[in-house]
Amino acid sequence: MEFPTPSPMKFDVPNVAESCKKWEKSFEVYRTAHEAFKKPEKVQVALLLHTAGPDAQTIFDTFQFRSGESKDKYSDVLQKFHEYVEPHRNVVYERYLFWTRDQQEDEPVDSWLTDLQTKASRCEFGSADVTDTMIRNKIVFGA
To answer: Is 81 in contact with 49 (CB distance < 8 Å)?
Structure first.
């Protein structure tokens, strides 16, 4: 059975870190479905780069691998992409999305709450208690 490859990684979006995180989840499902983890690491890296697309390949070419790291080791390459996108996390934008997320007409409360929790997890509010307080405040003041 053939599975379609995930769309290429997107680096020109407001929150590239979140976009790449979603892409990685999709790629891991694809990688598992194809049992790519059984192949040599160099092949896994090639599959990742091919699937991620030309922008990711260009970014990969800029990575510097320290002693003990390898451009042919899957986990090292994935870590380099994490390091590349994390500084690009836009917390202000994530908080904007959280605070402007109102419950839609006919939207069940549990669906809205789940989306608020997902959005809050990207806002770096601090502790779980503070995050819960922000979600509660959003529900009380901004429904």
So the answer is: no
Which tokens in the block code for residue 18? 């979140």
Sketch the domain layout of the chain as residue ranges.
16-88, 91-142
Alpha-carbon 112 to chain mean position:
21
CA 105 – CA 103 distance, rounded (Å): 7
Please state, in angstroms and rounded to a whole number, the distance separating the CA atoms of residues 137 and 139: 5
Q: What is the pLDDT of residues 74-117, one digit of tens each?
A: 999 999 999 999 877 789 999 999 999 999 999 999 999 999 99
Predicted TM-score (pTM) of the model is 0.67
Helix (H) or strand (E) holding 100: none
Query: Which structure tokens are listed for 74?
Result: 């899957």
Q: Rounded to an integer, what is the distance from CA 62 to the centroid of its chain?
A: 20
